[in-house]
Amino acid sequence: MTVSTLEETIIRTRDVSVYYGEKRAVSNINMDIKRNSVTAFIGPSGCGKSTLLRSMNRMNDLVPSCRVTGSITVDGTDINSPNVNIEGLRQVVGMVFQRANPFFKSIYENIAFAPRFHGLTDKRKLDEVVEESLRKAALWDEVKDRLRESALSLSGGQQQRLCIARAIAMQPTVLLLDEPASALDPISTMKIEELVMTLKDEYTIVIVTHNLHQAARVSEKTAFFLLGELVEYNDTSKMFTSPDHEKTEAYISGRFG
Amino acid sequence: MSHRSDTERQSGIARKMLSYNKRQWTENVTGKVIATVCAALLIVVVLSITYFIASKGLSTFFVNGVSITEFLTQIKWDPEGEPAIYGVFPFILGSFLVTTLAALIAAPLGIGAAIFMVELFPNFGKKVLKPVIELLVGIPSVVYGYVGLTLLVPFIREQFDVLGFSLLAGGLVLALMILPTITSVAADSIAAVPQDLRNASLALGATRWQTIWNVVLHSSLPGCLTAIVLGMARAFGEALAVQMVIGNTTKLPGSLLDPISTLTSGITLNMGNTIQGTPYNNALWSMALLLLLMSFVFIMILRIIGRKGLVNK
């Protein structure tokens, strides 16, 4: 498998379907996600984009009735294989949620959370990881004097960047962002977008968004979902100027959804 | 024509805004009066009980001339001796020891059970465990005491070759009694931890147990502390069940297996022997005052926990 480390594709889905009980939420998705790029998932509510995202780090395992068929590989390893250690998978594929969800702890403890559990106990190294993660999330300057204060004292936008920093601290390869800016004001949203664009040098980012402009601004590739199916998966520049599919064009121009 | 109808419309609107609906007004006032009377009655009752206990309890010191320090620190209780000695330290110590012992046993068990029923097996917890716990809360304390007297006391007697009536027996019976309280309050506070936080922790590659221990329990810490303090308050005030199994000697206990007395058992056992207004009777009221003060302390602790932020630094 030495080849796969050099490969362009980091996440590959083949015939992936996700069921909630009898209901099929996502059907037969085949897509290759490029390493160190930003891929946007767009589509109307209930189209299955978040469901697909959540099956990429197996957060769907928490839903008892949920079942995933087909194969999802991350760097060549099937993540649904019984040999996969789920905690290890979630270290590789980090996730940030729609609503900022900092722990009821200090800023420092929020960032140190994951590294601690993955075995980092040395205080000085922990300090370094915390600083580096906060710097990467463009939050360091705002919080460096108040690391011991409650994370809940931060503003909504800062909290969301804290959540991104918290995910970065475990040194993931992929970051899944599930509508990370949908609950934020325009300025905070802009900061998150800028952050996403700087982070792609180091991480592969998959972002679910309802904001089409956001998808156009930050992503290189865009996937359009409708009723659980992948309608079009294309370069973002092409998608927003001359999409191959008429449904895509209808959605992007605002005629439905 | 149109001018007239305009005027009519305007006067109609003005009438609506300026007149009162008599029924609405009466209902509104009656409701307010009833609620105020209920609240006032409650306040009057609480204040008068407090005043009554305080005046009775304090007269030991101000009328009968017993020294407060001696009352609290004397280790000898001999109200009918010559001279009478009113030292309630053994009772105070007994109350604290038995309450602490009960909390030490019941807190880990209760919180453990709460984790089990909320985090690990929510279905079983909701269908089986919760009703069982509610049932346990409803069992009268005399039944707990009777069970302790029948099973626990003989068991301790045989195991350790002692009398059996002991601090240990009291602590165990109380632990059993407050376990359901602690479990249900802790379970509620654990269930109130937002699912978002659990997801965040799991998504960061934490295991189920790491999530429960570091995120769920950490976030529900004030609630779990509240559960423990509520349990302790109940244990501190319990009289009957404790009295049946602790032996009620006023000697200071040397070990867990020695008999003790508590403030509550002291009052119930002695009150039949006393006559209103005597120093002996007043001394019992002083003990009641101590119990009242302790329940104020417990309430204050609960307030402080409630107000304190959730963050540990």
UniProtKB/TrEMBL annotation, chain A:
SUPFAM superfamilies: P-loop containing nucleoside triphosphate hydrolases. Gene3D superfamilies: P-loop containing nucleotide triphosphate hydrolases. Signal peptide: none annotated. The keyword Lyase does not apply. PROSITE patterns: ABC_TRANSPORTER_1, ABC_TRANSPORTER_2. One of its GO terms (biological process) is phosphate ion transmembrane transport. Residues 11-252 form the ABC transporter domain. One of its GO terms (molecular function) is phosphate transmembrane transporter activity. Keywords: ATP-binding, Nucleotide-binding, Transport. InterPro entries: AAA+_ATPase, ABC_transporter-like_ATP-bd, ABC_transporter-like_CS, P-loop_NTPase, PstB-like. GO terms for cellular component: membrane. NCBIfam families: 3a0107s01c2 (TIGR00972). PANTHER family: ABC TRANSPORTER I FAMILY MEMBER 17. This is Phosphate ABC transporter ATP-binding protein.
TrEMBL record, chain B:
It is found in: Cell membrane. The chain crosses the membrane at residues 33-54, 88-121, 133-156, 162-191, 212-233, 283-305. PANTHER family: ABC TRANSPORTER PERMEASE PROTEIN YQGH-RELATED, PHOSPHATE TRANSPORT SYSTEM PERMEASE PROTEIN PST. Part of the binding-protein-dependent transport system for phosphate; probably responsible for the translocation of the substrate across the membrane. The keyword Lyase does not apply. One of its GO terms (molecular function) is phosphate transmembrane transporter activity. InterPro entries: MetI-like, MetI-like_sf, Phosphate_PstC, Phosphate_Transport_Permease. This is Phosphate transport system permease protein. One of its GO terms (cellular component) is plasma membrane. Residues 92-302 form the ABC transmembrane type-1 domain. Keywords: Cell membrane, Membrane, Phosphate transport, Transmembrane, Transmembrane helix, Transport. SUPFAM superfamilies: MetI-like (SSF161098). PROSITE patterns: ABC_TM1. GO terms for biological process: phosphate ion transport. The gene is pstC. The keyword Protease does not apply.
